[in-house]
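User: Could you write out the 3D structure of this protein bound to pyridoxal-5'-phosphate? I've included everything you need below.
Assistant: Certainly. Input first, then the structure.
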Amino acid sequence: MSSNVDHSKIPELEHRNFRNDDFWKEIPAWASVTRGEFADHKWQTKNSIRKVEQVKKVLGDRCSDELYQDILDGQKKAPMNIRITPYIFSLIDWSNPVNDPLRKQFLPLGSQFLPDHPMHMADSLNEDVDAPIPLLTHRYPDKVLFLPTTICPVYCSYCTRSRIIGGSTESIDKETYGANQKRWDDVFEYIMKNSRIEDVVISGGDSYMLTPKQIRYIGENLLKIPHIRRIRFATKGIAIFPMKVLTDDEWVEAMQDVMKLGRAFGKQVVIHTHFSSPKEITKWSQMAMDRLYTEGFTVRNQAVLQTGVNNHIDTMVLLTRQLSFMNIQPYYVYMHDMVPGCEHFRTSLKEGIELEKAVRGTTAGFNTPTFVCDLPGGGGKRNVSSYEYYDQENGISVWKAPNVKPGQIFFYYDPLHSLSKEAQDRWMNEKSRNEMIEAARKKVEDQSSLKPK
Ligand SMILES: *Cc1c(COP(=O)(O)O)cnc(C)c1O
Ligand code: SF4
């Protein structure tokens, strides 16, 4: 991609247009579904697509045999099962599904997979290694990641936790788990005993899948720990299933009660969501955000940078502006983790850096996302430009994480499809591969011996 930003191509006010047509009526099986039915969270859950056969059933002859075969083939290779809300399913452009950013994220085609990078890892971020007890990762001094559940309202084919989320697939056996109060109590006890912890990320899995009772249980138990100052509930829900915010009053009230309890204690309770493409945003998203915002919620967004989904300046600028317009703060854009089955999604680090440069300056600074690389091996999140050394020819960046793992060196690797043919050949040979990595390591070790400690 080019680094010359052509501002004339970014329509200035496009981000204020929120799609509000009856788009689901384009799906043959839902042609007569009324707005009222479509708005109902129970209808959405009941009609979610969970099997390839259902794709064919709802699409009828809009699904060609070739496409169907490709989806079946995708299921053999994908690390994730299928689960798609009717909302997202009907936002897919079925006249061109192959290039559609939503189809890419939730309904992988066999023909689009690429062989994994030689350095890929199932637990790329060392979440299991940095876990002192089950369900909890404690990597940074004052914050922890708590995974109370491993189920979600949709399954993203690129999930960074594909090793545990969403049940076994044809290619992977998983230890997916649902809510388990006993194991949660152990987590609260660990946090209670570690008084440096101030911040808890409640992720998973997805907080949409927690019942109102479970939300209250987790929220109250965390907030009553004196040293806890901040908790965040992570849910992709607002992006892929805004109807729940609009019609599941009990769920919203439970979140609200926890948020108010936090406020009474002088503590923050916020929601982190996950929009990756402007195609996920409609009037429904805006209405859901209007409800959350009026009720006092702070919502932040974390997106993943993906080829063919959002690795384009116009797309990233539009996403940033549209999120801001809905009162969602664009917080992070992640380089894609090096997990299996995702090589076709990944981009080079250079692309991340170029996009960051293009987005910065297009809107308020506090609504400008930080582009980060969550270092494979558990070094934590680092700003994309803060590498120690970057061999662009071979796609090797070398990093340090002085506060997280002092003295250690970390590597991120660009996807092979972004490299020259010669570089790809070097990667295919184990000897030259090790030489390239060692040469990059040595550059950084030599640099550091010159610098004062
Ligand atoms: C991302 C993450 C956090 C939260 O990090 P922030 O930069 O504060 O958003 C906490 N723990 C782990 C293990 C994480 O991966
Ligand atoms: S919503 Fe999050 S945890 Fe669930 S499948 Fe998607 S990326 Fe994974």
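The longest strand covers residues 328-334.
User: Perfect, thank you.
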